[in-house]
Design brief:
The complex is a heterodimer of chains A (about 775) and B (about 150).
Chain A lengths: L1 H12 L3 H24 L4 E8 L4 E7 L1 H25 L5 H20 L3 H19 L6 H32 L4 H6 L5 H17 L8 H4 L5 H9 L3 H15 L5 H20 L5 H22 L2 H32 L15 H14 L6 H14 L3 H29 L1 H5 L20 H19 L3 H11 L15 H18 L1 H11 L5 H23 L4 H22 L15 H17 L3 H22 L2 H22 L12 H27 L6 H13 L4 H9 L1 H33 L3
Antiparallel strand pairs in A: 1-2
Helix pairs in contact in A: 1-2, 1-4, 2-3, 2-4, 3-4, 3-10, 3-14, 3-19, 3-20, 4-5, 5-6, 6-8, 8-11, 8-12, 10-14, 11-13, 12-13, 12-17, 13-14, 13-17, 14-15, 14-16, 14-19, 14-20, 15-17, 15-19, 16-19, 16-21, 17-21, 24-28, 25-26, 26-27, 29-30, 30-31
Chain B lengths: L4 H24 L7 H19 L1 H7 L4 H21 L9 E6 L3 E6 L1 H23 L4 H5 L10
Antiparallel strand pairs in B: 1-2
Amino acid sequence: MLGTAILVAGRRLGPRALLVGGVAPLAATAWAVWNAADVLNGRTITSRVSWVPGLGLEVDLRFDAFTLLMVGLVSGIGTLVFAYGWRYFGDGVRVTRLAGLLTLFAGAMLGLVLADNLLVLFIFWELTSLTSYLLIGNDDHDERARASALQALLITGLGGLVMLAGFVIIGQQAGTYQITALLADPPTGGPMATALVLVLIGAFTKSAQYPFHSWLPKAMVAPTPVSAYLHSAAMVKAGVYVVALFAPAFASVGIWRPLVVTVGLVTMLSGGLRALRPYDLKQILAFGTVSQLGFLMVLFGLGRPDATAAGCALLISHGAFKAALFMVVGIIDHQAHTRDVRRLPLLGVGWTTTKVVGVVSAASMAAVPPLAGFVAKDSAYEALLHGGAGDRWVLVGIVAGSVLTVAYSLRIMAGLLRPSLVAGEPSGKDASKRDAHSVLPPSPWFVLPAALLAMVTVVLGVLPAGRLVREAAAVLDPRSDSYLKLWHGFTTALALSMVTLFAGLVLFLIRRRVERAQARFAPRYSADHGYNDSVRGVLRTAEVVTGIAQPGSLPVYAAVILVTAAVVPLSGLVLGPFWPGWPDLVGASAYIPVAALLIGGAVAATIATRRFTAALLLGSVGYGMALLFIVHGAPDLALTQFAIETLSIVLFLLVLRRLPDHFERRAPAISQVPRLLVSAAFGVFVLIMGLASAGARRMPPVSDAMVEDALPKGGGRNVVNVILVDIRGLDTLGEITVLVVAGLGATALARAARRQSASDTGVS
Amino acid sequence: MRRSLILDSTIRFVFDSVVVFSVYLLFAGHNQPGGGFVGGLLAGVALALRYVAQGNSAVRATIAIRPRTVLSLGLGLAATTAIIPLLFGDALLDNAMLQLDLPALGLVKVPSAIAFDSGVYLVVVGLVLMVFEALGDDDPAALDGAPDIKVPRL
């Protein structure tokens, strides 16, 4: 809500908008810390607001230890990002819009982790998709930014819809949409396996899992503070969050575990491999994020208590080091105007803090002891070592992924300290010769948020937030009873960590050879191509379908509509016992002249040669109908029919005077045969339908109840009107909405056509 | 289009009564034949009469508001009346009754449905106005030499 206010009041706030926006996550952080002690003792704060009681939609919010972890991540890093963005953007024109969007985004993310209702969660989920679309496409003059934003929106938005389908199945199966109730008593049954796969697809798209990851590296066109937030704390963590929430209850249902673990591992490895290629620091980080997200997916997706706890630890440490790294890269970009290691100068005096922050965070990413990343990875190894045989294979995959992680972390470190190491052959102009003094060191305020995060990384390494992680994991999975520490003694896990670090170092040392091998074996067809091809495919299909369904010929449209209307119900009627017998042919003597008027008008209309005459004759048919209504004792209908006929004749005239006075010459007889056939079939259909429906009633008519209810409930004696405005009021509302939309569309079309003809002929 | 004197002066008398009748239909609709839709249509017919007799500028002079404003006012009114019961915890479109004891008229019951029906009325009128705006002649100048309407000659 504050975000909207900022968007509105934005222009006046100017660069201070970011600070104002930062108040929101700061307040959320403060609130979370305030309630932390309570929640850590196992209490859960819930609140419920009835939203649409008629539909059973309630906004359930809950705040427990795992939520505390997520809220801390979302709001804590959010606050720092705002502080950082304040220095990063300076006085830009777009800052206010960005600040508002960022606040909205943070709010949506907060709502997502607090939501205790599947549908509410979904709404916030799509809100994050929408706001991230606007954030990525912040620079709307840049075509690349727009395309990337659209890609992110299409992939995550579609994933969200798929997930909604899954949620609905789960909700129907469980009989409730409340998440806590649902997880406490997980529904079973056939559709659940499908539902879970649907939910997983949604989570995969959001968390940039293979093969849906292509949007994330592209989203790098966003300003760095946005990337820092998107990639460390928000957005991509949403998918992981959902998986973490569901895994303990559903991991053994259907193909959940194999699917999540496979996708996670593939993502981790392919992301890690791709991270070894680019020279753009931000791109390295982006693919690193993809890889780390795969890791998180595997840990949470297993749905085992110790792995879940390790996942919680990794969630925190990843948030801290990734945000800090993005901030560092952003600082470099801001000061040196490049993120390309091949063009980065050697950063000298005044950069010490930045470098230390970067190196510490990258080391944490590589899981160097005694940092937070190490604690997380160590517990992950520990968890998998104690698992069954299948877990060993997972472990192998994760170790391989971690080796890659170490290698690209080293790339980043080297890029910070000595760019020429990573750059490979200097291209043309030797980059390292660039004057280092031309790059001004950043102000301490600029570095502060990143430095704070690096401090968190160090502190959490030495003093792991064991309590928080334990409680959070316990909320997710009551069986969990883990404890984090830095030093477990000389265990297999420690040995594995050391092996990983060493192998990563080797991989970095032989980087030239790795690069060459990658260049040779890198697949030509990436997920990005897949995305482009599928978008193109959809567009082409749409074109073809439109071409078939909308040929633009009015006779064809009319024929299709009439034939469908005649054939489909008629075949149903003929197949069933339909013949009710002839009704009383002449009901009242008043019918005879009216029927004569109707038949005469209709027949005359078909043989009229002037359009105008035909329209008038049709009008007379309409008036005849109104007379029939009167004879039947329905003054309301008759009144409406009269008014409609009068109006439509006038409208007819408005259109007709733009058309030739006479109908075009009759089509040759041969083409009239099908027309006559269609008309006759339709006429027969209407006749039989009328007879059948008059004789088909078996239940007491619903109108009896309406007539009874009209006065006491609707407060009116005119039943027709009470039906319109009260009993079926929603229908009326829908109808007038359609009327308005159709009217707007038709008049817009008419005007456009007139303007065109005016410009064609010079006459209006 | 030639302006016909007889038609012109007849419309001057008829127009107001038709509009009043249409409003009557709107308000009477809850208990007697009528309602917002018929009322709106009838008002539309009145406008059509004016259009046929005096052209689009006369129609525009009759109603100072732009057609699309009338349209959106109507839809907004109907939607608001539909939503308001939700605020009091009732179902969508729930009907409420206001009983007034007016000095001259005696006991008058005003159902909230009247507001909803008025929305329908406005939508229909707005739609008719829009059609004239879009398809009718724009400026009086075009009325003269135009090969247009041959209406009154039957």
